[in-house]
Amino acid sequence: MKLGNLNMFLLNDPTVIRDLLEKRSNNYSCRPDLYARQFGDNLNIALRDNDEIWRRQRKMYHVRLNVKSADRYLPYQHCDSLQLLDDIVDRPDAWLEHIQRYTASISTTLLYGWRTPHTNTGYVKDLLEWMEVTSDALNFQLVDFYPSLRILYKVLPGWVLPNKRKLQNLQKLENRVFYDLLGKAKEKLESGEAHPSFIRDMLMDQDHDRLDDRQIANNAAHGFGAAMDTSANTLVGFIKAMVMFPDVQAKAQEEIDAVIGSDRLPQWDDRDRLPYIRAVVEETFRWAPSPISAAVPHAAKEDDVYNGMVIPKGSMMMINVWTVNHDRFPNARDFDPTRYTPESTLVENNSISQDSPRRMHFTFGAGRRVCPGFHVAERNIFIAVSRLLWGFNFQRARDASGKIIPINRDAVTPGLIVRPEDFECTIKVRSKSREEFIRKSWSDAQENLDSEGNFTPEFIKASFK
Ligand code: HEM
């Protein structure tokens, strides 16, 4: 595809994705030189080109959010999911809000060490505002397709170029929020009160990791941007699937009831014994991918030739996630967990395996840029999905005359990160005894929280040995 002076290749075939993004990753793990990169000190890991700073930033994710570290953070997810369940019992119609709070909270806890009991106060409010401004400001712009316009963009003032103004405002917001959060993390570290988190680990090993303050501040905040919406939107996709495919929901609950029973909640350790739930999670990633075009395109570092086709230096390489997640499968818009064998879902890494053609979905991207938060994401989603199925029934909503309100199966919101378009549904707790169990579990969990809703030092000491 030719967009202005820019060449864009849409990758619609897993074999091509393997051959280019994976086998030739030296050439295809760059990012395009988007205009937006000039703002925010070019320290957004997802936008930055493949260079020494990006490698250092990315290494932090590999070292500090790998499988072992992701397991370490499970007490955070197990606890926050109890508030999610309790919130839904309280106000089932506000389920979207509760899901967004859950994913915001596990993100702030893991990245910064503090919880988010409500999303409308404090730094989390700032972070959510930042994400909103970011998704608006980061859309492709004319100057991305006609790089010769850059000089003009440089000299023209913000009031003539609304996008330049948006990016300038974004930079101001980032300077305030990101560095305040860094300052707060440093204070906690100095006073010995810092809870385990990504930013704490980066600060503790700052000299060894060779990241300066600005890089650490950006790395943590951009983790929030990458984690919060993608995880929330995936859970919205899961609820939509359960409402539209009641037989799948019934089968999933059958498995949970048989393996877990009614007097405890599922947890991550149960994953091995819940093959159908694992398949529901994978099918959710395939069926409702939040980054439908793998979020940010890769770019070609040098000219290349593939199957006789010339790929010029600088070309954008977009994984067409929607297509590769669907085209290979019969009845691809049916939500069908039986597409997966228990063996294929048992190994977590299969979803990001380098052997692309064997993969069932590309929701986490591919090659050296593949999502480094994958293990955390898998835990966020598995814990929420299994517990929601344990506690609730998800049904079609009816209007005042009792008629079922239709749902557009394929409609998603616009943008590079999408979620299913709003739809009506009814969520009901499965039984009185389950409601009481949820109430009690959350009430007991609150014993471990202080007056601001953060974990007490005793809980941290007991959970992180
Ligand atoms: C369901 C949840 C998630 C989905 C679907 C998702 C998906 C993606 C995708 C498609 C990419 C781009 C991959 C590519 O360019 O090939 C990406 C990049 C990234 N993700 Fe995730 N992600 C999720 C959760 C998370 C979480 C929980 C974190 C961190 C805690 C995270 C951190 C990142 C970062 C830092 C990048 C940029 C990597 C780079 O450019 O080198 N993501 N993610």
Strand residue percentage? 5-15%
Ions, cofactors and other bound molecules: protoporphyrin IX containing FE
Radius of gyration: 22 Å
> What is the tally of helical segments?
20
Class based on secondary structure composition and strand pairing: alpha+beta
How far apart are the termini?
54 Å
Number of strands: 8
- The neighbouring-strand order within the major sheet is 1-2-6-3
Main β-sheet, in a few words? 4 strands, mixed
Q: What assembly state would you assign to the polypeptide chains in this entry?
A: single chain
Integer average pLDDT = 92
Shape: globular
GO molecular function, one term: heme binding
Keywords: Heme, Iron, Metal-binding, Monooxygenase, Oxidoreductase
Cofactor: heme
Organism: Clonostachys byssicola
Kindly describe this structure.
Its cofactor is heme. Heme binds at residue 371. It comes from Clonostachys byssicola. This protein is an alpha+beta fold. Helices cover 52% and strands 6% of the residues. The chain contains 20 helices and eight strands. Strands 1-2-6-3 form a four-stranded mixed beta sheet. A two-stranded antiparallel ribbon has the order 4-5. A hairpin with a 2-residue loop joins β4 and β5 (309-311). α6 runs antiparallel to α13. The longest helix has 32 residues, at 213-244. The model has no long low-confidence stretch (mean pLDDT 92). Protoporphyrin IX containing FE binds next to α3, α13 and α18.
